[in-house]
Structures are given as structure tokens and as C-alpha cells.
């Protein structure tokens, strides 16, 4: 079960996921409380699979995955004391090159990520490295001197929670897409979650209910900040969406229904953000489907702007709306799934 990875160097409909069938994107869960919100964050995500960095120091991979795991586990179940013990040990984790040895030596260059950093971070990693990291975490607490301090039930729960993490992240990854524009240095990650049903108008019968989905989109500018950021600063002006409802089994003679949202000059959730090198913009919104599943895809209408351009709100005067055609471009959002079950 994998997501959809698309690259700007390929044809729009070509799916590069065939090269990433054994990778997974670790990402924070979608929170209903964040619906309608937007934020600027650091573009600090790690994309080992995408960039082909498969042989990087395993210790660094394990540190990042276990830090993410410790945060995720506390987010989902904060009454398990083992997670807090993990935080102190992760920063000192140093993995030997062999699969069978684990050392806990201090690495002066490593440090645990803060809660804020973890909430902002995506990690694109292979299945193999994810499982290896969780094994390393288990070994942290199976050294002889640690076993006397830890209830064996905690180790069992660590194993169970690890499996939950993998399954929940696989479910998110199945409904996630990644598009990379290497020429511009931009990456778009989109994912969705069903949050319930809503009635059409004032009618609340079963026939008039629609499935409501929230979706989270992150636009990352992964260019490196420099003294000269010409052509590397971008403003998001608006969006165009195509929302496709899958036909139901009882509708074999009908085509999939497609709806278009064309809003090239109204930003997203009221914001018209400027995204500088090293920054990311993330927001959550929603859509409704009359079927149990469907797909969203589309693009953001973008402009190359000066580095002193400020973020705007809908209704503000925005100079980029009047930019010359050579400063305007579309940034694709690869298709991502909407699934109610």
C-alpha cells in the first residue's frame, strides 16, 4: 500500500511510485482541530527515498524515526512512561554498521527534536529502514542494565504500538501524494482523512448525506537560503481543484463524476502566502463527496516574487496578480485518494 509520487521531469500522468513501492512517508496525523488553519513552518522534512540516499548513517535514520515515534506515541497515548524514557536515550543512540550490534554512545552532533519540530516534520523512508529503527528502539531497553528498570509489559506495549504506528502511517500514505518540481525547488505533499458525514441543506435522510473529508497540503521550498534568493521566492495566489467521485457498484453504466473548483486569485483558506527558501506553507481544508471514495488533484497558481514581498490575506492588494507571464506558473498537486472506509 503506497502513495503517489510524481516528478515534474515526467509526463503529468506518469506515476513514479513504481520506484518507491517499498517506501513510506511518516507524517503527523490529521487533526480535526486544525481544519481551516494555515501556518508557515520550516522546510525540515527528510526525504531519503526520494533523493536516493539509501546508505546514509543508519544511526541518524534511527534517531529521527524513533524521535518521531516517541512523539507520535505520546500524541496518541500520553500515559505510557516508556516514551518519556526514550527521549533521553534517543539523542545518545549510535548504531554500529552491523545489523546485530547497537551501542548507546554519545554523539556530540545529535540531539532530540523538539515537539514543535516533530509536529512539522515528514520523513520519507524505506520500509526496511523503518523496521530497523524500531528494532533499534526495542534494543535500547533490552540491555541487561535496563531490563531491571523496565516492566516487561512496557516492552510488549512498545512492540504493539510500533505495529500500530506502521499500520496508521501506511493508511495515511495510501491517501497521500507527493509532487516535486525540481526546477523550481518545490515539493507538494497532500493527504486526506474522512471526518464524518454532512447533510445537504436541511435534509438529513440517509439519501442526502455526503462524506466529508479534510485534506492537508504542504508546499515546501527546499531551495537553500542564500544572500541572493532571486527566482527562489514564491507566492501562492490561488488554486484549481478537480474532485472526482468514484462511481458506486450500482452505477456501472455511469461515468465517474468530476467537479472543478477554479479559484486562481483567492489564495487558500483566506491566505496568500509568500514561501521563501527553507520555508513551507501548510493548510487544512475540506470537501464533500456523495460517494464512498474519490480523488482530488489540481494545481496551485504561483508567482515568482521579490524576497521582500510580504504575505497577504484575501482582499489585500497583491502585486503578483499583475505579474508578467514569465513570472507566473502552475505547481501541480498530484492525485490523492479520498476514502470513507
Describe what this molecule looks like in 3D:
The chain is of the alpha+beta class and 341 residues long. The protein contains 7 helices and 18 strands. The chain has helices at 48-51, 58-76, 81-90, 115-120, 127-140, 144-147, 152-174; strands at residues 4-7, 23-26, 38-42, 46-47, 94-95, 102-103, 123-126, 176-181, 186-199, 209-221, 234-245, 257-263, 271-272, 274-275, 279-289, 293-304, 312-313, 328-339. A 6-stranded mixed sheet has the order 1-8-9-10-15-3. Strands 11, 12, 14, 16 and 18 form a 5-stranded antiparallel sheet that branches. The longest helix has 23 residues, at 152-174. The protein is globular. Mean pLDDT is 78; it is low at 9-20 and 95-112.
Summarize the entry for a quick read.
With 341 residues, the protein is an alpha+beta fold. It has 7 helices and 18 strands.
Low-confidence stretches: 9-20, 95-112
* Strand order within the widest beta sheet: 1-8-9-10-15-3
Helix content: 10-25%
Structural class: alpha+beta
**Largest pleated sheet:** 6 strands, mixed
Number of strands: 18
- What is the overall pLDDT average? 78
Helix and strand element order: EEEEHHHEEHEHHHEEEEEEEEEEE
Amino acid at each position: 500500500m503506497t502513495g503517489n509520487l510524481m516528478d515534474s521531469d515526467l509526463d503529468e500522468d506518469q506515476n513514479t511510485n513504481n520506484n518507491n513501492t517499498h517506501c513510506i512517508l511518516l507524517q503527523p496525523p490529521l487533526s480535526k482541530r486544525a481544519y481551516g488553519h494555515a501556518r508557515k513552518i520550516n522546510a525540515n522534512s527528510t526525504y531519503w527515498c526520494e533523493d536516493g540516499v539509501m546508505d546514509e548513517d543508519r544511526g541518524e535514520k534511527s534517531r529521527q524515526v524513533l524521535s518521531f515515534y516517541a512523539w507520535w506515541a505520546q500524541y496518541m497515548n500520553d500515559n505510557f512512561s516508556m516514551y518519556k524514557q526514550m527521549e533521553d536515550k534517543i539523542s545518545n543512540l549510535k548504531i554500529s554498521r552491523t545489523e546485530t550490534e547497537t551501542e548507546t554512545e554519545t554523539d556530540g552532533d545529535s540531539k532530540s527534536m523538539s515537539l514543535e519540530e516533530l509536529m512539522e516534520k515528514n520523513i520519507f523512508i524505506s520500509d526496511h529502514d523503518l523496521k530497523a529503527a524500531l528494532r533499534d528502539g526495542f534494543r535500547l531497553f533490552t540491555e541487561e542494565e535496563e531490563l531491571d528498570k523496565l516492566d516487561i509489559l512496557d516492552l510488549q506495549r512498545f512492540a504493539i504500538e510500533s505495529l500500530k504506528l506502521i499500520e496508521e502511517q501506511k493508511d495515511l500514505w495510501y491517501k497521500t501524494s507527493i509532487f516535486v518540481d525540481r526546477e523550481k525547488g518545490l515539493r507538494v505533499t497532500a493527504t486526506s482523512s474522512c471526518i464524518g458525514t454532512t447533510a445537504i441543506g436541511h435534509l438529513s435522510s440517509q439519501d442526502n448525506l455526503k462524506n466529508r473529508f479534510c485534506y492537508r497540503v504542504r508546499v515546501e521550498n527546499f531551495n537553500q537560503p542564500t544572500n541572493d534568493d532571486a527566482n527562489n521566492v514564491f507566492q501562492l495566489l490561488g488554486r484549481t481543484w478537480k474532485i472526482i467521485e468514484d462511481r458506486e457498484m450500482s452505477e456501472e453504466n455511469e461515468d465517474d463524476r468530476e467537479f472543478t473548483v477554479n479559484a486562481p486569485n483567492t489564495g487558500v483558506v483566506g491566505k496568500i502566502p509568500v514561501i521563501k527558501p527553507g520555508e513551507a506553507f501548510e493548510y487544512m481544508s475540506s470537501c464533500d463527496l456523495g460517494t464512498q471514495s474519490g480523488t482530488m488533484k489540481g494545481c496551485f497558481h504561483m508567482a515568482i516574487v521579490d524576497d521582500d514581498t510580504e504575505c497577504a490575506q484575501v482582499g489585500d492588494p497583491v502585486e503578483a496578480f499583475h505579474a508578467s507571464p514569465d513570472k507566473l506558473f502552475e505547481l501541480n498537486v498530484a492525485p490523492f485518494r479520498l476514502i470513507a472506509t
